[in-house]
Amino acid sequence: MRERAPQFGRTGRVDFLSENNIPDMEYYLVKWKGWPDSTNTWEPLQNLKCPLLLQQFSNDKHNYLSQVKKGKAIKDNNKALKPAIAEYIVKKAKQRLALQRWQDELNRRKNHKGMIFVENTVDLEGPPSDFYYINEYKPAPGISLVNEATFGCSCTDCFFEKCCPAEAGVLLAYNKNQQIKIPPGTPIYECNSRCQCGPDCPNRIVQKGTQYSLCIFRTSNGCGWGVKTLVKIKRMSFVMEYVGEVITSEEAERRGQLYDNKGITYLFDLDYESDEFTVDAARYGNVSHFVNHSCDPNLQVFNVFIDNLDTRLPRIALFSTRTINAGEELTFDYQMKGSGDVSSDSVDHSPAKKRVRTVCKCGAVTCRGYLN
């Protein structure tokens, strides 16, 4: 017979009288990992060698009693758990497993250095059911993304020679500390696959992906999921790209009406030079899908060109505007354009998309009141 290990406890305290009349023994109903519910068994505490699960059980019970019963007198007499408490503990344990599986999947799919963690200490919401993690733009049918540069630099030191930015008529975007030094609205031209400089070139920042460990977490202010950094981020540093499905502006108009009615906002117009395409991160996206809006954000939008030099299809990079401490939520202004301006024509806000106004919950002193 294969060995069984506790997966989570559908547990409760009960009065128990054995044949030897030993009163008040503490038993837990155990769900065994890899086994169906029909094999659940009641086990005495001394049989359980899973201190972490027991601590989680205790924490879940405490959270339920403190949150659900807030303001009411509660008598915990160490006897059988009430059904509502037991049900909550079971749901919380199942949620924890589902979030762990989702976290593992996200980290298998990502192609960047930074790890992704998932946390929900607020409610019983599990992983989104219709979201697919991608690392780069996903073109909709009929849209072609040419991700192959036609020319590249031959620099030995891209800081001092005529590199890709100079060829495009702009300044090199970064300093030697890998911080962005150009003002918002100025495009970033990084070295590409045809350049002779190596992977350690100082003009290869966005293409290396997120370097910081981030956490998708459930917010306590009604904003759903959010993203926080687990490490300190220096000001003017690259944090993440905004990726999703690339669709036409006409399709964005249609989807925008549906999203407005649901009170969600995932459309980002690619309007660096024209307004032909939009990025929709509703179903396909990366960690940026979960970044919330703020009227006083700590991330700034920049247009980036690397292998695809089509000015209709810039990549969207988010850089820190100030030092962001570990544990702090990451936000950007949903009305911010790649030009650096704040406009109602950026994320899901063209005139045809303004069907329903979405209330802003950012809480900033400068809050505009609405996302659109």
From TrEMBL:
Gene3D superfamilies for the chain: 2.40.50.40, SET domain
Swiss-Prot/TrEMBL keywords: Cell cycle, Centromere, Chromatin regulator, Chromosome, Differentiation, Metal-binding, Methyltransferase, Nucleus, Repressor, S-adenosyl-L-methionine, Transcription, Transcription regulation, Transferase, Zinc
Q: Which PROSITE patterns match?
A: CHROMO_1 (PS00598), CHROMO_2 (PS50013), POST_SET (PS50868), PRE_SET (PS50867), SAM_MT43_SUVAR39_3 (PS51579), SET (PS50280)
In short, the EC number is 2.1.1.355
Q: Where in the cell is it found?
A: Chromosome, Centromere; Nucleus
Recorded hits in Pfam families, A to Z, give:
Chromo, Pre-SET, SET
Q: What are the Pre-SET domain coordinates in residue numbering? A: 151-209
Q: What is this protein called?
A: Histone-lysine N-methyltransferase
Q: Which organism is it from?
A: Felis catus
Q: Which gene encodes it?
A: CGAS
